[in-house]
Write a structure and sequence with these properties.
The protein is built from 6 helices and 5 strands; from the N terminus they run αααββαβββαα. It folds into 2 domains: 30 residues; 181 residues, Chalcone isomerase (3-Layer(bba) Sandwich). By secondary structure, it is an alpha+beta fold. The longest helix has 26 residues.
Length: 215
């Protein structure tokens, strides 16, 4: 076989291979988002923030079944001249969409459309000779919700903060002024405007990613 014949045979095999691979790709149909970007696969099925026509956030539903990341008791973020609250203060329970939490664990950042829901619960204390608990406090029913949203398409600062004054409130909430919540979170939030330092599950994940990133 001459060199020219070998070259022609090689070209024929190469063209056949390209055609076969191309046909296989076409037969699969268009690539799915999960195939093109593994990060997006994690976010499939995630509850997204919803807004009304005026841009108000509609109260998230079903957050009680989301990932529970922790509780704080009596934390007050802003410096004020008001006297400290009597007793231990309020319990704050914080929830995040399971997919957003998994994303943070895997990649060390909060994805777009992340929702944090924090319930405000008064500390209750019931004791007496006929009750089993003699000491301590427990969280009462939620009296309201505070919600933070990461939505760069909607908000120029990426994050926005909302308040629902009663637990079952259905009226959409408008974003709070920047100086009330955003500025404090931007200055003191340990990771991407989030107070991860107050929640052990998030803090542990953050430390793990920091160790991995070190040279």
């Amino acid at each position: 076989m001459t060199g020219r014949q070998r070259l022609s045979l090689f070209s024929l095999v190469l063209m056949t291979t390209i055609t076969t691979v191309g046909f296989a790709i076409l037969s699969r149909g268009p690539l799915r988002a999960g195939d093109a970007d593994p990060k997006q696969k994690i976010l499939e099925g995630m509850t997204l923030p919803e807004y009304d026509a005026r841009g108000g956030l509609i109260r998230p539903e079903g957050y009680e079944r989301w990932t529970f990341i922790g509780t704080s008791l009596g934390i007050r973020y802003l410096e004020t001249n008001d006297p400290p609250p009597k007793g231990p203060g309020d319990f704050h329970h914080v929830f995040i969409q399971p997919q957003a939490y998994e994303y943070y664990l895997r990649f060390g950042e909060f994805p777009e459309k992340t929702l944090f829901v924090m319930t405000n619960c008064a500390a209750s204390k019931k004791s007496g000779p006929d009750l089993i608990n003699k000491h301590g406090h427990f969280a009462g029913k939620a009296t309201g919700l505070e919600v933070s949203v990461k939505d760069t398409e909607k908000f120029s600062e990426s994050w926005a903060y909302f308040l629902f004054t009663t637990a079952g409130e259905r009226k959409p909430s408008r974003a709070l002024p920047q100086n009330l919540c955003y500025d404090c979170h931007a200055e003191h939030g340990q990771a991407d405007n989030v107070f991860t330092q107050f929640y052990g599950m998030l803090e542990q994940a953050r430390e793990s990613h920091l160790k991995t990133a070190r040279p």
